[in-house]
Amino acid sequence: MIVGDKAPEVLGINEKGEEIRLNNYKGKKIVLYFYPKDMTSGCTTQACNLRDNYTELRKAGYEVIGVSVDDEKSHQKFIEKNNLPFPLIADTDKKLVEQFGVWGEKSMYGRKYMGTFRTTFIINEEGVIERIIAPKEVKTKDHAAQIL
Q: CB-based contacts of 88: which residues, under 8 Å, 6+ apart?
């Protein structure tokens, strides 16, 4: 997906097993942020930064939705442990990460593996992608400020 593309109507299933649709967010901008894994340090830092600035983001008209390929149970634990006020999509079939082009080969310590690239998509009120914060640009400690 690139700037100007229309986001899919059905985004996925959240930690409660509920379907998340663009229609549920009419008139709001969506911060759809993809992250690699629940309970890891960078992902926790990013989620907590969004949590700590959630009121400001909402005042500015944004709704936050996180996405990873972890399952619903893992998301529930992550939300409870970090007191997250926003839903997390359990993209276990990797449909959304592939649709948005954020799934691919990564490498750590010389080992190659498939994973999610930390990327944030800002979707406007009409459901069109208006901004993308690319993997190398995402600052986990200061992500809300990047969005605002």
A: 14, 15, 38, 65, 66, 67, 68, 70, 75, 78, 79
Predicted model pTM: 0.96
Q: Which residues are known catalytic residues?
A: 43
Average pLDDT score, the chain? 96
Give CA 39 to chain center in angstroms.
15
Report, as an integer, the average pLDDT of 52-61: 97
Q: How far is CA 30 from CA 51, 66, 80, in A?
A: 15, 10, 22
CB 99 within 8 A of CB 8: yes
Q: Can you tell me the distance from the alpha carbon of 79 to that of 82, in angstroms, rounded to the nearest whole number? A: 5
- Spell out the domains of the chain, with CATH numbers in brackets: 10-147 (3.40.30.10)
